[in-house]
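Appendix B. Chain record.
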Amino acid sequence: MVDSRQLRYFLAVARRLHFTRAAEDLHIAQPALSQAIIQLERELGVTLFERHSRGVSLTTPGQVLERGAERTLRELEVAVDEVRSYVGQVTGRVRLGAWQSMEVRLPDLLAAFRSAYPAVDVAINEIVSDGMLESVRTGTLDLAMVVQRAHVNMSGLECEAFITEPYELAVASTHSLAQRRHVRLSELAEEPFVLHRPGSAVRDQILQACAEAGFAPRIALETGEMSAARAFVAAGLGVTILPRSSLLSPGPVVHLVQLRPTLHRTSIVVWPRKGHSSAAARSFLDFTLANRHLLA
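Structure tokens predicted for this chain:
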């Protein structure tokens, strides 16, 4: 009978694809881990890993077990947390997806949440919006903070808005537009743009706004980091449009110009419509919505 310890060992190797590194993560000896995986393979009658000189790779049966093991251990974790909540102790871990610009807003919320729920840990994953939505659907994330977009598949998800803020144009201090207080988006048709990589909600909104203004931006550089976008702009490699909060946070010096017409983004918190959320995840969601002023 496969037990939770074997599943945890298996997942450690599946994530690292390396026995020695997985053993270090688990704080056990590498031979003991190898023997545990061999025993698991014998019990199941399949080979879970192909062994190579530099590591391992999952076989097809291994990929199937990985999906099931993730789900099983998560359900066990939720059940344990739920039982503890009956005696007034909310424990566990919240897996939160958040876009990068939230890093300047989240600390105050997390500090207040930690004070209210000291036994709950929050693990933050910063990935593009499309990836976060799918992760909430599949249960890899409990919640996600993303930018609201039209024409995005929200099936299986619930959401509520909590921040609306303007976008602004960022240019180098030596750029001719740095002398302007505001600029129409259509005036940027010939400018080289620094944009986020595909899958980013910020990128989608900028491209849509440019299309409505009658042009497709010339993309000079793409990046997954807002700080990198600012650095490229500060170096004179292009212009970018980012939420005001990310442009006002510490970073490379850029000049801000207001856009006409004003372009806004609304941020939403997203959670699964169906499925059993942990007490920790429900507590974090309720706390966030009740204290959204900490994110404003």
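Further analysis of this model is presented in Appendix C.
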